[in-house]
Recover the amino acids of this structure.
């Protein structure tokens, strides 16, 4: 009996150590109420015997998208700096693709998103990686949201796998996103293409993490329902609704009233919809740096709305 009691006490002690091993660190810049909600939820996951996964959108959720998406800036910057100096057939064909994208104008539409992959086809994954990385270092290095980095640090403390999704070409984002957030490059998922003999092709591997494709990407490649999902736009609605726990929405639009094509969001702004759904609404500073030249602007691609905190 005495031995049984000692065994029980030892097991209880070990459990206490296990549950007490995680320490939540206050996220500066967000209110105490928001911190309390996040901390309470993370503590509720301590005894869960499941894969603990958090999934976040990329542009506008983990780093700034003002005045332009990094994917666009990377491509138009590459065209200005590299392609316009060349006279070969490949350069001319790539510039034609950009002209088509400019004429399209809808840089969140499926054809435009696919054309980003087509533009980069023929380069190696390493070359594409460096195009994205150099663009980030030159124009976006101060646009990673510090609050989101603190959130991800807390998630790691609580044993979460963290994934970041983008509709942009996967190779373009993997290096800088993985470096900034300290996650494996394989946890940065984007538009995928077939690679043959070390060279990328224009053959796209579905699903593209765009609109409902983000939810399908979770099912296809992450293969579990996430406990936490974060996004910022109408395009993240399907992904956010995959969350089995917290939904975190960054800088949601409160100006545009969505139409019938937006399903359950019809008649509401993005912000009012997620407030109704009980999501955590957070603010991160996303404004233009006047000292940075944006090539995208010179190609007359529409700018994203600023979100001063």
């Amino acid at each position: 009996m005495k031995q049984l009691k000692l065994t029980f006490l030892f097991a209880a002690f070990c459990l206490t150590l296990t549950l007490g091993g995680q320490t939540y660190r206050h996220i500066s810049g967000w209110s105490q109420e928001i911190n309390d909600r996040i901390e309470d939820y993370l503590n509720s996951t301590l005894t869960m015997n499941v894969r603990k996964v958090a999934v976040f959108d990329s542009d506008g959720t983990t780093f700034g998208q003002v005045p332009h998406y990094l994917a666009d800036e990377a491509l138009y910057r590459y065209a200005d700096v590299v392609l316009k100096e060349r006279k070969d057939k490949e350069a001319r064909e790539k510039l034609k693709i950009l002209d088509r994208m400019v004429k399209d104008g809808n840089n969140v539409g499926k054809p435009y998103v696919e054309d980003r992959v087509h533009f980069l086809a023929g380069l190696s994954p390493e070359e594409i990686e460096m195009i994205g990385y150099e663009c980030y270092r030159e124009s976006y290095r101060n646009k990673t949201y510090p609050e989101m980095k603190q959130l991800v640090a807390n998630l790691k403390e609580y044993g979460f796998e963290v994934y970041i999704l983008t509709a942009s070409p996967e190779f373009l984002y993997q290096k800088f996103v993985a470096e900034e957030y300290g996650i494996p490059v394989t946890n940065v998922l984007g538009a995928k293409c077939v690679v043959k003999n070390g060279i990328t092709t224009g053959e796209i591997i579905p699903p593209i993490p765009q609109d409902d494709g983000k939810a399908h990407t979770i099912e296809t490649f992450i293969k579990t329902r996430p406990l936490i999902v974060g996004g910022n736009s109408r395009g993240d609605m399907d992904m956010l609704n995959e969350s089995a726990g917290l939904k975190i929405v960054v800088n949601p639009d409160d100006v545009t009233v969505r139409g019938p094509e937006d399903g359950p969001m019809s008649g509401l702004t993005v912000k009012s919809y997620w407030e109704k759904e009980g999501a955590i609404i957070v603010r991160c500073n996303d404004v233009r740096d006047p000292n940075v030249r944006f090539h995208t602007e010179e190609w007359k691609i529409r700018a994203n709305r600023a979100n001063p905190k």
The chain has one domain: 24-298. The first helix runs from residue 2 to 19.
